[in-house]
Specification:
27% strand, globular, 128 residues, Beta-carbonic Anhydrase, Chain A, 5 strands, alpha/beta, 5-stranded mixed β-sheet
């Protein structure tokens, strides 16, 4: 059994807040991993219907991850009928997500921030 890496031996860490929707959950995680170079065990995940826009402020999980060294943070949502914002168009969801990501950049200034948006079965990634 291996012991946990010492902080100086540990590589970068991250945090991803996303929607729990089965259509986009795993695709979003894979897109985040590809964009950041993180492995699945190198970032925290927080999800619920509506993704990042459904959280009105920074969550305890995001703050813990940041305090523990997360330097790559992802904020995600999707279009194509999200149950967290039932009736919202893809454009509305994208605008909600971008607004949320801008707020989080200010909340966590030492991190790189990624915006992940699912639409049409694909997930696009951009830096915030």
């Amino acid at each position: 059994m291996s012991s946990p890496a010492k902080p100086e031996e540990r590589g970068p860490l991250g945090f991803l807040q996303l929607c729990a929707d089965r259509r986009y959950h795993r695709k979003t995680m894979l897109a985040f991993e590809q964009a950041t170079g993180l492995r699945p065990d190198e970032y925290w995940v927080e999800s619920r219907a509506g993704g990042a826009p459904s959280y009105t402020d920074t969550t305890r999980a995001a703050r813990v991850a940041y305090r523990e060294g997360a330097t790559r943070m992802g904020w995600a949502a999707h279009g194509d009928r999200c149950w967290g914002f039932y009736g919202a168009s893809n454009g509305e969801m994208r605008r909600k997500l971008v607004g949320t990501a801008r707020s989080r950049v200010a909340d966590f200034p030492r991190a790189s921030h990624f915006v992940l948006f699912g639409e049409g079965g694909e997930v696009s990634v951009s830096e915030a």
